[in-house]
Amino acid sequence: MTEEEKSYKTKKVITIGIVSELTGLSERQIRYYEERQLIFPDRSQRGTRKYSFGDVETLMDIANQMEDGVRTFEIRQEMKKKPDEEKLKRSMIKGQLNARFGIQNNMKR
């Protein structure tokens, strides 16, 4: 993902009404997911919730899991694991590339 795509996906500029239209979720459902600590919108100076496109994707994923009967607690637990899994994947790929191209890791032990 390029820096431009990253900033575009993470910039919180979308209001809850638009998010509701994009996702098909009610504003109440979106607020509920926030209460359950599954989504973390920013707030404007007037208190308006602001979401990113990444948040919209997360909400769609949450809604799909909820339809499949997954509870919010279980979703939150899985969300906590994702950063660790991503870090592990990157580390494994880096190791594979280093091994493939004969790059030695000069880290102190």
How would you concisely characterize the structure shown here?
The protein has 109 residues and is mainly α.
- Backbone CA Rg: 18 Å
Helix % is 55-70%
* Beta-strand residue percentage: 5-15%
Kindly report the CATH topology.
Answer: Multidrug-efflux Transporter Regulator, Chain: A, Domain 2
By DSSP, the count of extended strands is: 3
CATH architectural arrangement: Orthogonal Bundle
Main structural class: mainly alpha
Key features of this structure:
single chain; 109 residues; Multidrug-efflux Transporter Regulator, Chain: A, Domain 2; 3 strands; extended
Structure commentary:
The chain has 109 residues and is mainly alpha-helical. It has a single domain, classed as Multidrug-efflux Transporter Regulator, Chain: A, Domain 2 (Orthogonal Bundle), CATH 1.10.1660. Helices cover 63% and strands 6% of the residues. It contains five helices and three strands; from the N terminus they run αβααββαα. The chain has helices at residues 3-10, 16-23, 27-35, 53-67, 72-100, and strands at 14-15, 42-43, 49-51. The protein has a three-stranded antiparallel sheet with strand order 1-3-2. The longest helix is centred in the C-terminal third of the chain and has 29 residues, at 72-100. The protein starts with a helix and ends in a 9-residue tail after the last helix. The mean pLDDT is 84.
Which helices and strands appear, and what pairs or packs with what?
Elements: H1 3-10, E1 14-15, H2 16-23, H3 27-35, E2 42-43, E3 49-51, H4 53-67, H5 72-100
Antiparallel strand pairs: 1-3, 2-3
